[in-house]
Design goal:
The structure holds three protein chains of three kinds. By secondary structure, chain A is mostly helical. Chain A has one domain (2-209). Chain A contains eleven helices and two strands, in the order H-H-H-H-E-E-H-H-H-H-H-H-H. By secondary structure, chain B is mainly α. Chain B has one domain (9-238). Chain C folds into two domains: 1-80 and 159-248, 3-Layer(aba) Sandwich (Rossmann fold), CATH 3.40.50.300; 90-155, no CATH class. In chain C, the strands form two sheets. Chain C has a six-stranded mixed beta sheet, with helices on both faces. In chain C, strands 2-1-4-5 form a four-stranded antiparallel beta sheet, covered by helices on one side. The chains are: A mainly alpha, B mainly alpha, C alpha/beta.
Chain lengths: 283, 314, 248
């Protein structure tokens, strides 16, 4: 039962990270290695706004998401877009950006762990298991956020435009869909989701400058398993990875969880490179 | 008619001269400091050259080169400290271990197009670093493995040894890059489907070149271990990989000799930036961004090209 | 005399689309055979299946009696079947000569002086003077020739040409036809050629296999094919592709 709940929480965080990662790829064909930085910046921003600016948590959270979303849009516009012709150029520049952010955080905040306050401090007892309220809230928030995103894409005109671009960018352009503006929007959503994950998970996961690396590793593993560009695939794979790690942590030991993601990635690439729900194996 | 370019006499001669100059330098300005910096620069040169051979030629950029460096270094550390094996065995052992990792990681990822390879290598390096910390009882955790015995005690002599290794590797890989190997790797960069239609088993070539790249990276790792006399998880850091890639970019991708210059330049620059302390890595990352935007062909190789063209009528 | 290439019941689906339906064909040594069909008929898919670039669902492909359906693309080239691509992609960053050299590294090439042989091939296709040029700067027609030179470099017995005339002007088409005929007679190459315009291969091929919707609808000499009612029907409704009387 513990596994069920903790696994769900982990999966929820992973899902928020993976969906944003796969979304920007599916739409703009950008593999953004700075995605982890959005997660990190979300957490740090919440820390700064509450601790140093003294803002109430809910306001700090919203502002953090907005700030990171804008940051994401700027990164895409200024750094990534000029290099879009080379997929590796995009990888390089986004990785370099991630490192600059990491170094900036290190220079400003040092390498000690920082405390992001939680929305709910009490523990609940669910089905006989003690769970921190914040973790449950994270699960709930993630569900709402991803559900909302899904509804947005399925039911609004803007959402249809996004789908159109991801399926056929050229045709979408000929139909007058402003792809550049859509890229910015999608980037904002992607960064915002990652920042939300940072804000929600900050209280119970570690907050230090290099916290952006693991999310990238996990996000990559998830999209490989789920299929790059497929949102349902990412969600499914996020749950698979989240539960796999939780199970390994309980049955074997916490130390071995790290290998799960890499192992899953390599195995998937050997046997089914397209992922479970992906359309093609290679681009 | 010669089909393949082969080693260029002028460049080889120039390389030899540069190597001799580098060797002589510390005897002119004595003191442990310079020898130390140059030794590290030479080792970075080995790492940069090994990266360039695979990624520079094929265009399949390896974002986890630090993994091969780290496993080579840790192999040296384990053998030497935990198993008490003589230090010279580190060299072949580190190469073997790195080559093994190259096969395991290269096989699933190099078969596919797209950035799977780049990202899988990055992920693997990150995870390896975490594993070194997690299994601290075996690996020494943050502090890593200490008290490694040096290969050659005299720093100057060790420096000359490392320099010789660098020269040898650069010569070998330059020669390969200008022979049919290099042609095939560059063709893979050009278009993989056309390569298949030309009858080439491209996956095999990609994996083998990764293995070669890894072998020398691991060797460099062992050399580093026997210089620092300790290894730590920091070797696996993403920053190490990025530093090396920056060196290759500065030197000129795919030229093999350029990255040596890039390694020298950047190592010296890093030392010069010592005063900036914690800002060094930040400056590096910004430098990389700058180069990606404005100098994609690097600095060293284009300058060498210009110098050569000056000497001859067009 | 047994056939050089035998295709038996070759079948392929792309998702729900049945792209190639139990395709049967035989090719004898020394023939020049053309595969004719409107766009979407399955011609390039056939080529991709034969040369190992995509996997077939079922069926057999025999080269000199040896089954090759499951082999990798580069292995098939090593057995003597080479192909060109409709969308020529030269090796970017390599010179014209180097492009041909890459094709010369396979097991069928016995000469030691690869450079000389590559120059010879370039001379055959008329690109000798451009040997040191960057391959990505070539004109469309020259790229086609380079494709052929690169395929020839692998020392094939059977050459598959994928719409070699597409996008070329009439004088270039004429020159290319002459080249293909030369290669056929001088090098004793067996050639299988795809086109969707009949005019181009009327004079070139000895036999035509017409396909539509993944099936063979007619087979025969060019003169017969043109009069075949099923072939005419397949083309009506699409633009006038037979181009028999008009200039291209």
């Amino acid at each position: 039962m513990e596994i069920l709940i903790y696994g769900a929480v982990t999966s929820a965080i992973y899902a928020m990270l993976a969906v944003g990662f796969t979304l920007i790829f599916g739409v703009a064909r950008i593999l953004n290695l700075a995605h982890g930085s959005f997660y990190a910046l979300g957490a740090y921003s919440a820390y700064v706004l509450t601790t140093l600016a003294g803002l109430p948590l809910w306001l700090a959270a919203l502002l953090s998401i907005a700030i990171v979303a804008i940051f994401g849009v700027l990164v895409e516009k200024i750094l990534i877009r000029p290099l879009r012709s080379s997929q590796l150029g995009v990888l390089m520049i986004s990785l370099a950006t991630a490192l600059v952010v990491e170094q900036a955080l290190f220079l400003i905040f040092g390498s000690e762990y920082r405390n992001v306050p939680a929305f709910i401090d009490t523990k609940f007892n669910l089905f006989g298991v003690d769970v921190a309220g914040q973790r449950l809230l994270t699960l709930a928030v993630a569900t709402v956020a991803i559900g909302g995103l899904y509804a947005f894409i399925q039911f609004t005109r803007l959402g249809s435009a996004i789908l159109a671009i991801s399926q056929d960018p050229l045709a979408a352009k000929y139909m007058g869909i402003p792809s550049d503006r859509i890229f910015s929007l999608v980037m904002a959503i992607s960064a915002g989701l990652a920042a939300l994950a940072g804000v929600m998970a900050g209280p119970f996961l570690s907050v230090q400058p290099s916290m952006h690396l693991l999310p990238i590793v996990k996000a990559f593993a998830i999209v490989v398993v789920g299929g790059l560009g497929s949102i349902p695939g990412s969600i499914a794979a996020a749950f698979m990875l989240g539960y796999a790690e939780t199970i390994v942590a309980y049955l074997v030991s916490g130390s071995w969880t790290e290998i799960v993601s890499v192992l899953a990635t390599l195995l998937m690439l050997v046997f089914r490179p397209a992922g479970l729900f992906g359309k093609r194996a290679a681009f | 008619m010669k089909a393949f370019k082969g080693l260029d006499t002028l460049s080889s001669f120039g390389g030899l001269v540069a190597l001799l100059l580098l060797g002589v330098l510390p005897t002119l300005f004595t003191g442990k400091y310079l020898v130390g910096v140059l030794t590290v620069a030479a080792i970075y040169g080995i790492w940069a050259v090994s990266w360039d051979f695979m990624s520079g030629l094929t265009g399949r950029e390896n974002f986890g080169h630090s993994l091969f460096i780290g496993v080579g270094a840790y192999a040296a550390g384990f053998l030497n400290v935990h198993f008490g094996v003589g230090p010279w065995w580190s060299l072949p052992a580190s190469m073997l271990v790195s080559m093994l990792f190259a096969v395991v990681l290269g096989f699933p990822t190099l078969r596919l197009k797209g950035p799977y390879f780049a990202l899988a290598m990055l992920s693997s390096a990150v995870i390896m670093q975490r594993l070194m910390l997690i299994f601290w009882e075996y690996t020494g955790g943050e502090e890593g493995i200490q008290d490694i015995t040096p290969l050659i005690v005299n720093p100057l002599h060790y420096y000359w040894f490392v320099l010789a290794v660098l020269g040898g590797i650069t010569l070998l890989l330059s020669w390969m890059a200008r022979s049919r190997w290099g042609l095939i790797l560059r063709a893979i960069r050009g278009d993989e489907a056309t390569c298949l239609a030309a009858g080439l088993p491209i996956t095999t070539y990609k994996i083998v070149s990764l293995v070669i790249s890894a072998a020398f990276a691991g060797l460099g790792g062992a050399l580093y271990a026997h210089y620092q006399l300790q290894v730590s998880p920091q070797l696996f850091a993403v920053v190490t990989s990025i530093t090396i890639i920056t060196m290759v970019y500065v030197g000129g991708m795919g030229t093999i000799f350029g990255p040596v210059g890039g390694a020298l330049l950047l190592t010296v620059m890093t030392e010069g930036l010592r005063n900036f302390g914690e800002w060094r890595l930040m400056i590096y990352s910004l430098l990389l961004i700058f180069i990606l935007f404005f100098l994609p062909n690097g600095i060293i190789a284009p300058i060498w090209q210009k110098m050569r063209n000056l000497g001859r009528p067009s | 005399m047994s056939a050089l290439l035998q295709v038996k019941q070759l079948d392929k689906h792309f998702g729900g689309l049945h792209v190639l339906k139990n395709f049967n064909m035989e090719l004898h040594k020394g023939e020049i055979v053309g595969i004719l069909g409107p766009n979407g008929a399955g011609k390039t898919t056939l080529f991709n299946l034969l040369t190992g670039f995509i996997p077939a669902d079922s069926g057999e492909v025999l080269l000199r009696g040896q089954p090759i359906r499951q082999l990798k693309a580069n292995t098939i080239v090593g057995l003597g079947m080479a192909r060109t691509f409709q969308l020529c992609r030269p090796f970017v960053g390599l010179t014209v000569l180097e492009n041909v050299l890459v094709g010369s590294l396979g097991p069928r090439v016995k000469t030691h002086d690869l450079g000389e042989r590559a120059m010879h091939l370039l001379a055959q296709v008329g690109l000798a003077d451009k040997a040191q040029q960057a391959s990505e700067l070539l004109s469309y027609g020259d790229l086609r020739r380079l494709e052929i030179a690169r395929a020839l470099a692998t020392e094939p017995e059977l050459l598959l040409l994928d719409e070699p005339f597409a996008g070329l002007g009439s004088s270039e088409i004429e020159a290319l036809s002459v080249l293909i005929r030369q290669l056929h007679s001088e090098q004793h190459l067996t050639i299988l050629l795809i086109e969707h315009k009949l005019r181009e291969f009327m004079q070139l091929v000895s036999r035509v296999v017409a396909i539509d919707f993944g099936e063979i609808i007619a087979e025969g000499s060019p003169a017969d094919i043109v009069k075949d009612p099923r072939v005419i029907e397949a083309y009506i409704g699409k633009q006038n592709p037979l181009n028999l009387d008009n200039h291209a």
